[in-house]
Amino acid sequence: MAQKIQSVKGMNDLLPVEQKDFKLTAAFWQAFEDTVSQWARAYGYQQIRTPIVEQTGLFVRSIGEETDVVGKEMYTFSDSNDSLSLSLRPEGTASCLRAVVEHNLLYNNPQKLWYMGPMFRRERPQKGRYRQFHQVGIEALGFAGPDIDAEITAMSADLWNKLGIRDYLTLEINSLGNRKERAAYRAALVAYLTEYEDQLDEDSKRRLKSNPLRVLDTKNPGLQEICNAAPCLIDYLGEESLAHYNRFKALLDGLQIEYVENPRLVRGLDYYNQTVFEWTTEKLGAQATVCGGGRYDGLIEELGGKPAASIGFAMGIERLLLLVHEYGSLKVNAAPDVYAMHQGEGADLKVMQYAQALRAAGLNVLQHSGYQKLNAQMKKADASGARFALIVAQDELAEGKVTLKDMQGEKGQITVAAADLINTLQQWKNV
Ligand code: HAM
User: Fold this and answer.
1) Does 6 fall in a domain?
2) What SUPFAM superfamilies does its record include (predicted)?
3) Is the pTM of this model over 0.85?
4) Which residue's C-alpha comes closest to atom 23 of ligand 1?
5) Which of 29, 147, 245, 424 is most buried, with most CB under 10 Å away?
């Protein structure tokens, strides 16, 4: 036998059935996608779909060369025909903004957009952390006020409610101020951390040079004391930034959305300013952040567009659905309404005709394929989870009749005139 070829490490198949180490099924995922589409529509957000491959320069310029995502985790290759460097997108914001600028979507018109799709980061795979993972993202472009910060935060909270996981998530917020304020803070932080440089681990020493705010993000317990005593960004915010942050918090209070202020929340991508937030959980081990985002007021301009203050967030679908699978609620309807069987000469054609008529009337019909005995077909009907079975048999056909069976309820098995088939099943279904 030829050797089997395995999927790429950290990239999952989504199957009709649960896998031992990956519990999410395609039907579960589909139910989530339906919920998300309705949710985004309810808030007036429009969908955008961008390519999975972009010029590498897009991510370098927006996410930042010194970030882990761009510096270490991107899948980058050169197009064979020319020397253009391309990358699989590690996130959706940069692509979304590239498209908005390219197609001039912001001309006189702010935009509320959402997207869903695969992203790629070469991280060490573990539960909740994959190399191909999926995000749902929201981007509100051309809005400067704190009202939109609160709107999108409330919007995320609303989705957690719909998915039955609100009780398992904590909202953490912070403000990064504007560029000038952050620069002043950065200088103070570097001065402080430099005093302790010999006690820092290798990662933090590297970050001290490249991205000092991220040192505070360290998971190393040995560094917690140093980080706790570090200067706080909030103390460097000016009047305007503080007013924006305070109004954001007041709006959250008014909307009864609880939050924890985390002065060390800085996010892992370089484009953020002012409001940042993350939704975290204690239920997923180390991969605690299921959703993160914030303002990126300067990014559109950096990508060649006219200035437009903006904010957004993205949630990791795998992390979210692992949580929903275990603790939440999501109605999955994968089973067919009807399993259609046939037996005897001419019944194979009739069953197809009846199945088409039932589908046209709005029922989902899984038709048995092949010519097995009826009891073998009935076993398949059972296994399919169908609510009803339709049996089209040659001898009944001669009298213009078919048999219906209620597989889960109490209606039993009856024979009806073929002309009453649709009516009867519709009534059964609606009870
Ligand atoms: P991010 O924090 O890099 O932000 O990613 C958002 C979410 O994607 C994370 O909170 C996590 O749930 C999920 N995620 C990230 N990496 C992985 C992975 N390797 N495996 C599984 N899930 C993962 C962004 O991507 C920004 N673009 C969010 C944003 C939109 N900010 C403004 N607008």
Assistant:
1) no
2) Class II aaRS ABD-related, Class II aaRS and biotin synthetases
3) yes
4) 316
5) 245
